Amino acid sequence: MRRIFNRLAAGLIVAGLALPLAGTASAATLRWSNDGDVNSMDPYARNETFLLTFLQNIYEPLVRRSKDLKTEPSLATEWAQTAPDVWRFKLRQGVKFSDGTPFNADDVLMSYKRARQPSSNLGSIFVTLLDLVKVDDYTIEFHTKGPDPILPEELTNWGIMSKVWAEKNNATVPADLGKVTEESYATRNAMGTGPYMLKERVPDVRTVLVANPNWWDKPTGNVTEAIFTRIANPSTRVAALLSGEIDFVYTVPPQDVDRIASTPGTKILKKPELRTIFLGFDQNRDELLESNIKGKNPFKDVRVREAFYRAIDEKTIVTKVMRGQAEETALMIAPGVNGFDKSLNERVPYDPAKSKKLLADAGYPNGFETGMDCPNDRYVNDEQICQAVVAMLAKVGIKVNLLAQTRLKYFGKIGSPNYGASFYMLGWTPSTYDAHNMLASLVATRTPAVGLGDNNDGGISNAQIDKDVGEIQVELDQKKRQALIADALSVIKNQYLYIPLHQQVVVWAARSNVEVVQMADNYFPLRFVTVK
């Protein structure tokens, strides 16, 4: 198997341990793999979990998450709400970027301006902000549009970049990943303050990180070199783990869980995830890009959206496709996310007969044809889920032409600025673990100037949702805020603006000598990993 894998990988695995850092006797190399690549070294290129978790090894936020997902100091040491519309942050002194440049408030200001560029995918972080003000070299103030009670929670995915490095390399504006051919220096290079530095980058093949010897903090693990290899084929990926070619697998095929768990020398780690997998529709265009219906858009009709919902047998998807590694849901947020309302979490029943009647009432007695976009290397069994949906919709007369692609091409098509999908599958974990993030990113009317609707790929625009989002982001009374969240969730559910499917279970696999911290947001910080 080792010789077979080496031929398949064509040199993708770098053998041997990294040279230990001075005074680090237990230094180790971690060889790990995923089905999809990181796609970019730019931390503002995409608001997507795998890219964000990978790059947080290099770029650090002001406020980070602990092992139990609590906020804790990172590049900021303390913060306080000094007025209802002002948050003051004290920055950590003595920190240097890995090229030796000192970190200070100017880096935060440049990063803020960069993250608010139209080509950035992190604009939703700053929905409530009016301005970022430098008080002195190590003090900054966020001025908000009224109270923002959860601002520190919103900053945990915003990695700070070097002003000097970005200006020197003409990288003060992010390259737009929606334009697949567009790159900047930051697309293939990286330089942050974090625990690791980029040593090698071969897109879609291999990315190597090495420990930053001058990091201001201390890792709890012992990994000094991390070799990431993309292995798209699930069988090859699992075989590499079982044979010892790699130490850790981030995306585990459900069909291989029992096999890995029962093989000596390997183990499975499971945890419920906060991510919701769902289906979306183009509800913006007057005519779909990919349909045989001309002159109108069927998805603007709530009866059609309900018909699609009732045609999908989610119980079968959970049991057959996901092999029980998911929990069906009726909401766009998971239990554990602030604002989750158990009373609303009951799915509309699977009912293909009613689905056909709804289609007939909407003027489509014989159904119609639509395209569907799906990743094949992003979520657990993503392409298989979409194939199941295609088959289920066919039973009620809907012909779905499925296009499953790698995440780079998929996100480039469905997201800003193209918004080229008629019907699509997506997943979302609120980075703040609060419902407002989902509502502001996925459901609020697209308003790029203020960061609303950044990932509203279907172009939803609902006045009640917009009103609720505006009030939720400034409401300090928790009961009133929860009532507003429940109202918004009810509108999504009753208007079938999305079709929630399930929350997948985080399933990782590792060699027995690898200790990792599994987090419910599916983040994988290398600083927590120990290889014995």
Detailed description of the structure:
The protein is an alpha+beta fold and 532 residues long. It has 16 helices and 20 strands. Strands 1, 8, 9, 10, 11, 12, 13, 14, 17 and 18 form a 10-stranded mixed β-sheet that branches. Strands 4-5-7-6 form a 4-stranded antiparallel β-sheet, covered by helices on one side. Helix 9 runs antiparallel to helix 11 and helix 14 packs antiparallel against helix 15 (463-472). Mean pLDDT is 92; it is low at 1-25.
Helix and strand topology:
Blueprint: H1 2-9, E1 28-34, H2 49-55, E2 63-65, E3 71-73, E4 76-83, E5 86-91, H3 105-115, E6 129-136, E7 139-144, H4 151-154, H5 163-168, H6 185-188, E8 196-202, E9 206-211, E10 223-230, H7 234-243, E11 248-249, H8 257-261, E12 266-272, E13 276-281, H9 302-311, H10 314-321, E14 326-328, H11 352-361, E15 369-375, H12 382-394, E16 399-405, H13 407-414, E17 423-428, H14 435-443, H15 463-472, H16 478-494, E18 498-511, E19 514-515, E20 530-531
Parallel strand pairs: 1-10, 1-11, 15-16
Antiparallel strand pairs: 2-3, 4-5, 5-7, 6-7, 8-9, 9-10, 11-18, 12-18, 13-17, 13-18, 14-18, 19-20
Overall geometric form: globular
Mean pLDDT: 92
Which percent band covers the strand fraction?
Answer: 15-25%
Main sheet makeup = 10 strands, mixed
User: Portion of residues in helices?
Assistant: 25-40%
Tell me the span between the first and last alpha carbons.
Answer: 23 Å
